[in-house]
Protein backbone atom coordinates (compact mmCIF):
# COMPACT_ATOMS: atom_id res chain seq x y z
CA UNK A 1 0.00 0.00 0.00
CA UNK A 2 2.83 2.39 0.82
CA UNK A 3 4.29 1.77 -2.62
CA UNK A 4 1.24 1.70 -4.87
CA UNK A 5 -1.80 3.33 -3.22
CA UNK A 6 -2.08 6.91 -4.51
CA UNK A 7 -3.36 9.92 -2.60
CA UNK A 8 -7.15 9.70 -1.99
CA UNK A 9 -7.75 12.47 -4.51
CA UNK A 10 -5.97 10.51 -7.26
CA UNK A 11 -7.83 7.40 -6.10
CA UNK A 12 -11.21 9.07 -6.64
CA UNK A 13 -10.10 10.41 -10.03
CA UNK A 14 -9.06 6.90 -11.12
CA UNK A 15 -12.34 5.52 -9.73
CA UNK A 16 -14.24 8.10 -11.77
CA UNK A 17 -12.56 6.94 -14.97
CA UNK A 18 -13.13 3.26 -14.12
CA UNK A 19 -16.87 3.80 -13.55
CA UNK A 20 -17.08 5.85 -16.74
CA UNK A 21 -15.56 2.95 -18.70
CA UNK A 22 -17.69 0.29 -17.00
CA UNK A 23 -20.81 2.29 -17.77
CA UNK A 24 -19.92 2.32 -21.47
CA UNK A 25 -19.20 -1.42 -21.50
CA UNK A 26 -22.03 -2.85 -19.38
CA UNK A 27 -24.90 -0.42 -19.96
CA UNK A 28 -26.42 1.15 -23.06
CA UNK A 29 -25.30 4.63 -21.99
CA UNK A 30 -23.31 6.72 -24.45
CA UNK A 31 -20.16 8.58 -23.50
CA UNK A 32 -22.06 11.88 -23.52
CA UNK A 33 -24.74 10.43 -21.28
CA UNK A 34 -22.11 9.25 -18.80
CA UNK A 35 -20.65 12.74 -18.75
CA UNK A 36 -24.15 14.09 -18.14
CA UNK A 37 -24.79 11.63 -15.27
CA UNK A 38 -21.45 12.57 -13.72
CA UNK A 39 -21.98 16.32 -13.94
CA UNK A 40 -25.59 16.22 -12.74
CA UNK A 41 -24.65 14.15 -9.70
CA UNK A 42 -21.49 16.09 -8.87
CA UNK A 43 -23.07 18.40 -6.29
CA UNK A 44 -25.57 15.92 -4.85
CA UNK A 45 -23.60 15.47 -1.61
CA UNK A 46 -23.06 19.11 -0.68
CA UNK A 47 -25.16 18.94 2.48
CA UNK A 48 -23.53 15.67 3.49
CA UNK A 49 -20.07 17.07 2.74
CA UNK A 50 -20.71 19.96 5.12
CA UNK A 51 -21.89 17.50 7.76
CA UNK A 52 -18.64 15.54 7.41
CA UNK A 53 -16.55 18.72 7.65
CA UNK A 54 -18.39 19.51 10.88
CA UNK A 55 -17.78 15.94 12.13
CA UNK A 56 -14.07 16.65 11.77
CA UNK A 57 -14.10 20.22 13.08
CA UNK A 58 -16.45 19.79 16.04
CA UNK A 59 -14.83 16.52 17.06
CA UNK A 60 -11.37 18.06 16.98
CA UNK A 61 -12.54 21.14 18.89
CA UNK A 62 -14.17 19.02 21.59
CA UNK A 63 -11.13 16.77 21.92
CA UNK A 64 -8.76 19.73 22.28
CA UNK A 65 -10.72 21.12 25.24
CA UNK A 66 -9.10 20.65 28.68
CA UNK A 67 -12.08 18.69 30.07
CA UNK A 68 -12.24 16.18 27.22
CA UNK A 69 -8.46 15.78 27.17
CA UNK A 70 -8.64 14.66 30.79
CA UNK A 71 -11.43 12.19 29.95
CA UNK A 72 -9.52 10.67 27.04
CA UNK A 73 -6.43 10.61 29.21
CA UNK A 74 -8.32 8.65 31.85
CA UNK A 75 -9.37 6.04 29.28
CA UNK A 76 -5.85 5.90 27.87
CA UNK A 77 -4.43 5.24 31.33
CA UNK A 78 -5.79 1.68 31.13
CA UNK A 79 -3.35 0.90 28.29
CA UNK A 80 -0.08 -0.27 29.83
CA UNK A 81 1.65 -1.57 26.69
CA UNK A 82 1.51 -1.16 22.89
CA UNK A 83 -0.54 -4.36 22.60
CA UNK A 84 -3.14 -3.29 25.14
CA UNK A 85 -3.36 0.13 23.45
CA UNK A 86 -4.22 -1.52 20.12
CA UNK A 87 -6.87 -3.74 21.75
CA UNK A 88 -8.47 -0.92 23.77
CA UNK A 89 -8.70 1.53 20.86
CA UNK A 90 -10.34 -1.14 18.68
CA UNK A 91 -12.94 -1.96 21.32
CA UNK A 92 -13.71 1.70 22.11
CA UNK A 93 -14.07 2.49 18.41
CA UNK A 94 -16.40 -0.47 17.84
CA UNK A 95 -18.62 0.52 20.78
CA UNK A 96 -18.78 4.13 19.61
CA UNK A 97 -19.49 3.14 15.99
CA UNK A 98 -22.22 0.70 17.02
CA UNK A 99 -23.90 3.55 18.93
CA UNK A 100 -23.54 6.03 16.06
CA UNK A 101 -21.32 5.97 13.00
CA UNK A 102 -20.36 9.66 13.11
CA UNK A 103 -19.54 9.38 16.80
CA UNK A 104 -17.38 6.34 16.13
CA UNK A 105 -15.41 7.95 13.30
CA UNK A 106 -14.35 10.86 15.47
CA UNK A 107 -13.95 9.26 18.89
CA UNK A 108 -11.82 6.39 17.58
CA UNK A 109 -9.28 8.69 15.92
CA UNK A 110 -9.17 11.13 18.84
CA UNK A 111 -8.67 8.33 21.35
CA UNK A 112 -5.92 6.83 19.18
CA UNK A 113 -4.06 10.15 19.25
CA UNK A 114 -4.31 10.27 23.03
CA UNK A 115 -2.94 6.74 23.28
CA UNK A 116 -0.06 7.67 20.98
CA UNK A 117 0.86 10.44 23.42
CA UNK A 118 0.90 8.15 26.44
CA UNK A 119 2.01 4.69 25.30
CA UNK A 120 5.62 4.37 24.25
CA UNK A 121 6.51 2.09 21.36
CA UNK A 122 3.03 1.76 19.84
CA UNK A 123 2.87 1.86 16.05
CA UNK A 124 0.89 4.99 15.17
CA UNK A 125 -0.26 3.69 11.78
CA UNK A 126 -1.73 0.53 13.30
CA UNK A 127 -3.26 2.55 16.13
CA UNK A 128 -5.24 4.69 13.66
CA UNK A 129 -6.07 1.67 11.48
CA UNK A 130 -7.42 -0.14 14.57
CA UNK A 131 -9.49 2.90 15.50
CA UNK A 132 -10.92 3.06 11.98
CA UNK A 133 -11.60 -0.69 11.85
CA UNK A 134 -14.30 -0.32 14.51
CA UNK A 135 -16.36 1.45 11.86
CA UNK A 136 -17.17 -1.95 10.28
CA UNK A 137 -20.01 -2.57 12.78
CA UNK A 138 -21.85 0.74 12.29
CA UNK A 139 -24.54 -0.54 9.92
CA UNK A 140 -25.45 -3.30 12.37
CA UNK A 141 -25.98 -0.78 15.18
CA UNK A 142 -28.29 1.97 16.35
CA UNK A 143 -27.57 4.31 13.42
CA UNK A 144 -27.78 1.72 10.63
CA UNK A 145 -29.54 3.55 7.81
CA UNK A 146 -31.01 0.47 6.10
CA UNK A 147 -32.57 -1.25 9.15
CA UNK A 148 -33.83 2.09 10.45
CA UNK A 149 -35.29 2.97 7.06
CA UNK A 150 -37.34 -0.22 6.67
CA UNK A 151 -38.52 0.12 10.29
CA UNK A 152 -40.01 3.55 9.53
CA UNK A 153 -43.62 3.94 8.49
CA UNK A 154 -43.88 5.19 4.91
CA UNK A 155 -40.45 4.03 3.70
CA UNK A 156 -40.10 3.73 -0.11
CA UNK A 157 -40.52 -0.08 -0.19
CA UNK A 158 -43.35 -0.45 2.30
CA UNK A 159 -45.81 -1.66 -0.34
CA UNK A 160 -43.43 -4.50 -1.19
CA UNK A 161 -42.21 -5.63 2.26
CA UNK A 162 -44.22 -3.69 4.83
CA UNK A 163 -42.58 -2.23 7.94
CA UNK A 164 -39.89 -4.45 9.47
CA UNK A 165 -39.06 -4.01 13.15
CA UNK A 166 -35.47 -3.59 14.29
CA UNK A 167 -36.02 -6.70 16.40
CA UNK A 168 -35.77 -8.62 13.10
CA UNK A 169 -32.70 -6.75 11.88
CA UNK A 170 -30.42 -4.94 14.35
CA UNK A 171 -31.50 -7.05 17.32
CA UNK A 172 -31.98 -10.34 15.44
CA UNK A 173 -29.95 -13.22 16.84
CA UNK A 174 -27.85 -13.70 13.68
CA UNK A 175 -26.84 -10.01 13.69
CA UNK A 176 -26.05 -9.90 17.41
CA UNK A 177 -23.88 -13.02 17.08
CA UNK A 178 -21.92 -11.56 14.14
CA UNK A 179 -21.34 -8.32 16.08
CA UNK A 180 -20.30 -10.23 19.22
CA UNK A 181 -17.79 -12.38 17.33
CA UNK A 182 -16.31 -9.29 15.66
CA UNK A 183 -15.95 -7.63 19.06
CA UNK A 184 -13.78 -10.55 20.13
CA UNK A 185 -11.86 -11.30 16.93
CA UNK A 186 -11.05 -7.85 15.54
CA UNK A 187 -9.13 -6.56 18.59
CA UNK A 188 -7.13 -9.81 18.62
CA UNK A 189 -6.49 -9.50 14.88
CA UNK A 190 -5.28 -5.92 15.29
CA UNK A 191 -3.01 -7.02 18.13
CA UNK A 192 -1.37 -9.68 15.94
CA UNK A 193 -0.79 -7.12 13.17
CA UNK A 194 1.72 -5.28 15.36
CA UNK A 195 5.00 -4.94 13.45
CA UNK A 196 8.37 -5.88 15.00
CA UNK A 197 10.16 -3.16 16.92
CA UNK A 198 12.57 -2.33 14.11
CA UNK A 199 9.62 -1.64 11.77
CA UNK A 200 7.41 0.19 14.27
CA UNK A 201 6.55 3.78 13.34
CA UNK A 202 6.09 5.96 16.40
CA UNK A 203 5.47 9.69 16.74
CA UNK A 204 6.85 12.33 19.05
CA UNK A 205 4.08 13.13 21.57
CA UNK A 206 5.02 16.81 21.44
CA UNK A 207 3.74 16.95 17.86
CA UNK A 208 0.20 16.55 19.19
CA UNK A 209 0.35 19.72 21.29
CA UNK A 210 -2.40 22.00 20.00
CA UNK A 211 -2.08 25.75 19.93
CA UNK A 212 -4.05 27.15 22.83
CA UNK A 213 -5.23 30.72 23.09
CA UNK A 214 -3.84 32.62 26.04
CA UNK A 215 -6.12 34.55 28.36
CA UNK A 216 -5.31 38.21 27.88
CA UNK A 217 -5.03 40.48 30.88
CA UNK A 218 -4.31 44.12 31.48
CA UNK A 219 -5.92 46.90 29.51
CA UNK A 220 -8.39 45.33 27.08
CA UNK A 221 -10.70 46.89 24.55
CA UNK A 222 -14.43 46.12 24.87
CA UNK A 223 -14.12 43.65 21.96
CA UNK A 224 -11.17 41.87 23.61
CA UNK A 225 -13.04 41.65 26.88
CA UNK A 226 -15.91 39.86 25.12
CA UNK A 227 -13.50 37.50 23.34
CA UNK A 228 -11.91 36.53 26.65
CA UNK A 229 -15.11 36.39 28.68
CA UNK A 230 -16.79 33.12 29.65
CA UNK A 231 -20.23 34.72 29.92
CA UNK A 232 -21.22 34.59 26.24
CA UNK A 233 -19.83 31.06 25.82
CA UNK A 234 -21.78 29.81 28.82
CA UNK A 235 -25.04 31.46 27.70
CA UNK A 236 -24.97 30.06 24.16
CA UNK A 237 -23.65 26.74 25.45
CA UNK A 238 -26.52 26.40 27.91
CA UNK A 239 -29.02 27.12 25.13
CA UNK A 240 -27.50 24.25 23.14
CA UNK A 241 -27.67 21.90 26.13
CA UNK A 242 -31.32 22.83 26.73
CA UNK A 243 -32.19 21.92 23.15
CA UNK A 244 -30.34 18.61 23.45
CA UNK A 245 -32.30 17.84 26.63
CA UNK A 246 -35.55 18.60 24.81
CA UNK A 247 -34.51 16.44 21.84
CA UNK A 248 -33.59 13.39 23.92
CA UNK A 249 -36.75 13.62 26.04
CA UNK A 250 -38.85 13.75 22.89
CA UNK A 251 -36.96 11.22 20.73
CA UNK A 252 -35.09 9.00 23.18
CA UNK A 253 -31.43 8.20 22.52
CA UNK A 254 -31.88 8.54 18.75
CA UNK A 255 -28.58 9.91 17.53
CA UNK A 256 -28.15 11.16 13.98
CA UNK A 257 -25.31 13.06 12.34
CA UNK A 258 -26.83 16.50 12.98
CA UNK A 259 -27.36 15.76 16.66
CA UNK A 260 -23.83 14.38 17.05
CA UNK A 261 -22.40 17.54 15.47
CA UNK A 262 -24.68 19.73 17.60
CA UNK A 263 -23.57 17.88 20.74
CA UNK A 264 -19.86 18.15 19.89
CA UNK A 265 -20.17 21.82 18.92
CA UNK A 266 -21.86 23.08 22.06
CA UNK A 267 -19.84 20.92 24.43
CA UNK A 268 -16.75 22.33 22.72
CA UNK A 269 -18.00 25.88 23.28
CA UNK A 270 -18.62 25.19 26.96
CA UNK A 271 -15.45 23.21 27.61
CA UNK A 272 -13.15 25.79 25.99
CA UNK A 273 -14.54 28.46 28.28
CA UNK A 274 -13.96 31.59 26.22
CA UNK A 275 -14.81 32.44 22.59
CA UNK A 276 -11.14 33.10 21.83
CA UNK A 277 -10.01 29.64 22.96
CA UNK A 278 -12.88 28.04 21.03
CA UNK A 279 -12.08 29.92 17.81
CA UNK A 280 -8.36 29.09 18.09
CA UNK A 281 -9.30 25.39 18.23
CA UNK A 282 -11.60 25.82 15.22
CA UNK A 283 -8.80 27.41 13.20
CA UNK A 284 -6.58 24.42 13.93
CA UNK A 285 -9.36 21.96 13.07
CA UNK A 286 -10.27 23.34 9.64
CA UNK A 287 -6.72 22.79 8.38
CA UNK A 288 -7.52 19.11 7.89
CA UNK A 289 -10.83 19.55 6.07
CA UNK A 290 -9.45 20.13 2.58
CA UNK A 291 -9.65 16.49 1.48
CA UNK A 292 -13.32 16.20 2.41
CA UNK A 293 -14.25 19.45 0.67
CA UNK A 294 -12.55 18.57 -2.61
CA UNK A 295 -13.11 14.82 -2.87
CA UNK A 296 -16.72 14.32 -1.80
CA UNK A 297 -18.15 16.03 -4.93
CA UNK A 298 -16.19 13.55 -7.07
CA UNK A 299 -17.76 10.66 -5.16
CA UNK A 300 -21.16 12.25 -5.74
CA UNK A 301 -20.38 12.30 -9.46
CA UNK A 302 -19.45 8.61 -9.33
CA UNK A 303 -22.73 7.85 -7.57
CA UNK A 304 -24.55 9.77 -10.29
CA UNK A 305 -22.97 7.62 -13.00
CA UNK A 306 -23.59 4.38 -11.09
CA UNK A 307 -27.27 5.01 -10.45
CA UNK A 308 -28.41 6.91 -13.55
CA UNK A 309 -26.66 4.58 -15.99
CA UNK A 310 -28.00 1.48 -14.26
CA UNK A 311 -24.50 0.13 -13.64
CA UNK A 312 -25.19 -0.51 -9.93
CA UNK A 313 -28.29 -2.50 -10.89
CA UNK A 314 -26.30 -4.50 -13.44
CA UNK A 315 -23.76 -5.45 -10.75
CA UNK A 316 -26.48 -6.48 -8.31
CA UNK A 317 -28.37 -8.54 -10.87
CA UNK A 318 -25.17 -10.37 -11.82
CA UNK A 319 -24.80 -11.67 -8.25
CA UNK A 320 -28.48 -12.48 -7.89
CA UNK A 321 -28.36 -14.55 -11.08
CA UNK A 322 -25.83 -16.98 -9.55
CA UNK A 323 -27.54 -17.23 -6.16
CA UNK A 324 -29.73 -19.95 -4.66
CA UNK A 325 -31.69 -20.11 -1.43
CA UNK A 326 -28.51 -21.03 0.50
CA UNK A 327 -25.98 -18.64 -1.00
CA UNK A 328 -28.29 -15.67 -1.58
CA UNK A 329 -27.40 -13.78 1.61
CA UNK A 330 -23.68 -14.24 0.96
CA UNK A 331 -23.93 -12.91 -2.59
CA UNK A 332 -26.15 -10.04 -1.44
CA UNK A 333 -23.42 -9.15 1.04
CA UNK A 334 -20.66 -9.48 -1.55
CA UNK A 335 -22.49 -7.44 -4.17
CA UNK A 336 -23.19 -4.68 -1.64
CA UNK A 337 -19.51 -4.61 -0.72
CA UNK A 338 -18.52 -4.10 -4.35
CA UNK A 339 -21.22 -1.50 -5.07
CA UNK A 340 -20.12 0.37 -1.94
CA UNK A 341 -16.81 1.18 -3.60
CA UNK A 342 -18.69 3.32 -6.09
CA UNK A 343 -21.75 4.37 -4.06
CA UNK A 344 -20.31 4.99 -0.57
CA UNK A 345 -23.62 5.92 1.04
CA UNK A 346 -25.80 3.43 2.87
CA UNK A 347 -29.05 5.17 2.01
CA UNK A 348 -28.07 5.77 -1.62
CA UNK A 349 -26.89 2.22 -2.06
CA UNK A 350 -30.11 0.79 -0.60
CA UNK A 351 -32.19 2.89 -2.99
CA UNK A 352 -30.30 1.33 -5.91
CA UNK A 353 -30.05 -2.27 -4.70
CA UNK A 354 -33.27 -2.73 -2.74
CA UNK A 355 -35.64 -3.29 -5.70
CA UNK A 356 -33.41 -6.06 -7.06
CA UNK A 357 -32.51 -7.70 -3.76
CA UNK A 358 -36.01 -7.61 -2.29
CA UNK A 359 -37.57 -9.05 -5.44
CA UNK A 360 -34.97 -11.84 -5.47
CA UNK A 361 -35.56 -12.54 -1.77
CA UNK A 362 -39.27 -13.01 -2.36
CA UNK A 363 -38.63 -15.21 -5.41
CA UNK A 364 -36.27 -17.43 -3.38
CA UNK A 365 -38.55 -17.28 -0.31
CA UNK A 366 -35.67 -15.78 1.67
CA UNK A 367 -35.95 -13.57 4.74
CA UNK A 368 -36.42 -9.94 3.71
CA UNK A 369 -35.01 -8.72 7.04
CA UNK A 370 -31.86 -10.81 6.67
CA UNK A 371 -31.51 -9.68 3.05
CA UNK A 372 -31.59 -6.06 4.17
CA UNK A 373 -28.94 -6.76 6.80
CA UNK A 374 -26.77 -8.61 4.26
CA UNK A 375 -26.75 -5.45 2.12
CA UNK A 376 -26.12 -3.35 5.23
CA UNK A 377 -23.13 -5.49 6.24
CA UNK A 378 -21.72 -5.31 2.70
CA UNK A 379 -22.02 -1.53 2.74
CA UNK A 380 -20.13 -1.32 6.05
CA UNK A 381 -17.56 -4.01 5.20
CA UNK A 382 -15.69 -2.41 2.30
CA UNK A 383 -15.62 0.95 4.08
CA UNK A 384 -12.46 -0.53 5.60
CA UNK A 385 -10.61 0.07 2.33
CA UNK A 386 -12.67 3.00 1.01
CA UNK A 387 -10.83 6.34 1.50
CA UNK A 388 -14.19 8.18 1.33
CA UNK A 389 -15.02 7.29 4.93
CA UNK A 390 -11.45 7.30 6.20
CA UNK A 391 -10.88 10.97 5.33
CA UNK A 392 -12.16 12.48 8.62
CA UNK A 393 -10.15 10.00 10.71
CA UNK A 394 -7.04 10.52 8.57
CA UNK A 395 -7.39 14.31 8.85
CA UNK A 396 -7.62 14.07 12.63
CA UNK A 397 -4.64 11.70 12.74
CA UNK A 398 -2.50 13.60 10.23
CA UNK A 399 -1.90 10.47 8.14
CA UNK A 400 -2.47 9.43 4.52
CA UNK A 401 -4.66 6.57 3.36
CA UNK A 402 -1.65 4.46 2.33
CA UNK A 403 -0.37 4.60 5.92
CA UNK A 404 -3.28 2.51 7.26
CA UNK A 405 -4.74 0.63 4.30
CA UNK A 406 -2.26 -2.25 4.45
CA UNK A 407 -3.51 -3.09 7.94
CA UNK A 408 -7.12 -2.48 6.92
CA UNK A 409 -6.87 -5.08 4.14
CA UNK A 410 -6.12 -7.82 6.67
CA UNK A 411 -8.97 -6.68 8.90
CA UNK A 412 -11.23 -6.63 5.82
CA UNK A 413 -10.39 -10.28 5.08
CA UNK A 414 -10.94 -11.50 8.65
CA UNK A 415 -14.17 -9.55 9.13
CA UNK A 416 -15.44 -10.62 5.72
CA UNK A 417 -15.00 -14.30 6.63
CA UNK A 418 -16.86 -13.83 9.93
CA UNK A 419 -19.75 -11.91 8.37
CA UNK A 420 -20.05 -14.37 5.48
CA UNK A 421 -20.16 -17.39 7.77
CA UNK A 422 -22.74 -15.67 9.94
CA UNK A 423 -24.99 -14.89 6.99
CA UNK A 424 -24.62 -18.41 5.56
CA UNK A 425 -25.15 -20.50 8.69
CA UNK A 426 -27.02 -18.43 11.32
UniProtKB/TrEMBL annotation:
Transmembrane ranges, per UniProt, are 12-30, 42-63, 83-112, 124-150, 170-190, 229-247, 253-271, 292-314, 326-343, 404-425
Q: Which InterPro entries match?
A: SCFA_transpt_AtoE
Highest taxon listed in the record's lineage: Bacteria
- Under which name does UniProt file this protein? Short-chain fatty acid transporter
Source organism of this protein record? Rossellomorea oryzaecorticis
- UniProt keyword annotations, A-Z: Membrane, Transmembrane, Transmembrane helix
Q: Which Pfam families match?
A: SCFA_trans
Amino acid sequence: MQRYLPDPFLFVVILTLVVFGLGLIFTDSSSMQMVQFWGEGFWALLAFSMQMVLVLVTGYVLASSPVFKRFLGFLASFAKSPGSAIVIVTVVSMIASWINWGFGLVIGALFAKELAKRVKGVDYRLLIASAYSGFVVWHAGFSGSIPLSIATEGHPFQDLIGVISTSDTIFASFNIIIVAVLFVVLPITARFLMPPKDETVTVDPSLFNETAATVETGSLTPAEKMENSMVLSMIIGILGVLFLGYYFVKNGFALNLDIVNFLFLFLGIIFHGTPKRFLTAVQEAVKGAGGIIIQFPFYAGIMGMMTASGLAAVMSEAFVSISNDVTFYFFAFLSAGIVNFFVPSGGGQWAVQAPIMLDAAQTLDASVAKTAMAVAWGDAWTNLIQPFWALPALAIAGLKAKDIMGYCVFILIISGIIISLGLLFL
